[in-house]
């Protein structure tokens, strides 16, 4: 929207437009003494014409952060730090420690033989594995082995702990949590497991082997939780699904070939607050720009390319992380004419959709591309 139009809209009837006078300023001071205020002094700010995200579009390059993440191993132990994590601190969201919107994210590192004690919290967590051998997570007694680009859930209220096997290698993964949202809702509880570690009560990887079979669900399999019983989505079948789908679809002009991780029992999102998708940009593909409500954190899973977010170009390659704030224009391009590029995306779409506040708009000018 042009500046001129914005000015016009600020002047239209029905919007607050009261000039300060000495009498009014004194009146506001009086109201403040009673913990009250005049709505017209804040109305235009708290009721914008359209979403005004304070999040900045940011890219966190893995090449910049990796050495710093590894250095934390020499500086703190997991016991002392609780979790050894370097978090992504959006310059517009430092007050709530968010990477974008109401989503928190960080890079966690563990060395072979290390174990982080079990806990649970109201916040829902996911992790996306970057590198290393031997990492595992235990969720409510279900142990999962973790490999590169696997996507793992530790939904709200579940006991969870992580570790790396003695014969593994240093492991780094990306954590994503709805901590800022839980804190905004003032509903965040946190509890340490009474035994510090859980007993593994089921065969390793049983939830993925039970619920993660294409087109098949366990006969009589019952599940009454609001999150997915499939705690781990492995990379190999995910990439295989994308390739198969790409062979038979034109894809979306805005997203290329995109598939959503779902709860196999309900068909809905993987957790109540956070959803995730994996999208493929085919060789040479460049998407058109659009924008939508919700906050988005992309993790480059494969390949290299760039995204244009609100007119700024961000070049990315494998394991870089970048964010698209709510209602920001964005488009993506694969840099290669031979290889595909894949983007994992963590988002708060389940919140947008369940509250009925999801909105989408295509960029109309310039053949659907933003000026950079
Ligand atoms: Fe946790
Ligand atoms: Fe989009």
From TrEMBL:
GO MF annotations in UniProt: dioxygenase activity
InterPro entries: Cupin_2, GDO-like, RmlC-like_jellyroll, RmlC_Cupin_sf
One of the Pfam families matching this protein, by short name: Cupin_2
Domain Cupin type-2: 107-173, 278-345
Keyword entries, A-Z: Dioxygenase, Oxidoreductase
PANTHER family: 1,2-DIOXYGENASE PROTEIN-RELATED, CUPIN
Protein name in UniProt: NADPH dehydrogenase
Organism lineage: Bacteria, Pseudomonadati, Pseudomonadota, Alphaproteobacteria, Rhodobacterales
């Amino acid at each position: 929207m042009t500046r001129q139009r914005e000015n016009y809209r600020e002047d239209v009837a029905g919007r607050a437009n009261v000039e300060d006078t000495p009498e009014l300023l004194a009146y506001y001071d009086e109201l403040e003494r009673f913990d009250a205020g005049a709505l017209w002094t804040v109305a235009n700010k708290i009721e914008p014409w359209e979403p005004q995200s304070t999040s900045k579009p940011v890219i966190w390059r893995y090449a910049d952060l990796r050495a710093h993440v590894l250095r934390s191993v020499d500086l703190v132990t997991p016991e002392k730090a609780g979790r050894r994590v370097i978090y992504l601190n959006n310059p517009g969201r430092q007050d709530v420690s968010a990477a974008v919107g109401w989503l928190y994210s960080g890079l966690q590192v563990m060395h072979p033989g290390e174990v982080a004690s079990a806990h649970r919290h109201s916040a829902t967590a996911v992790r996306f594995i970057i590198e290393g051998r031997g990492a595992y997570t235990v969720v409510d007694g279900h142990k999962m082995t973790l490999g590169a680009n696997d996507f793992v859930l530790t939904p709200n209220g579940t006991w969870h702990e992580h570790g790396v096997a003695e014969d593994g290698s240093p492991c780094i993964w990306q954590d994503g949590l709805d901590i800022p949202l839980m804190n905004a809702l003032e509903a965040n509880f946190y509890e340490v497991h009474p035994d510090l570690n859980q007993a593994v009560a089921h065969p390793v990887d049983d939830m993925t082997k039970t619920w993660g079979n294409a087109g098949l669900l366990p006969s009589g399999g019952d599940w009454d939780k609001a999150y997915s019983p499939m705690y781990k989505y492995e990379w190999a079948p995910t990439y295989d699904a994308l390739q198969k789908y790409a062979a038979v679809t034109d894809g979306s002009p805005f997203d290329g070939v995109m598939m959503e991780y779902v709860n196999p029992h309900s068909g809905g999102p993987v957790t109540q607050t956070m959803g995730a998708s994996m999208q493929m940009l085919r060789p040479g593909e460049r998407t058109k720009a659009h924008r939508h409500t919700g906050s988005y954190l992309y993790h480059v899973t494969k390949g290299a390319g760039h995204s244009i977010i609100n007119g700024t170009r961000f070049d990315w390659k494998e394991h870089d992380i970048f964010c698209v704030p709510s209602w920001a224009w964005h488009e993506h391009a694969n840099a290669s004419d031979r290889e595909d590029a894949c983007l994992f995306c963590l988002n708060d779409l389940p919140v947008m959709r369940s509250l009925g506040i999801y909105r989408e708009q295509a960029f109309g000018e310039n053949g659907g591309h933003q000026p950079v």
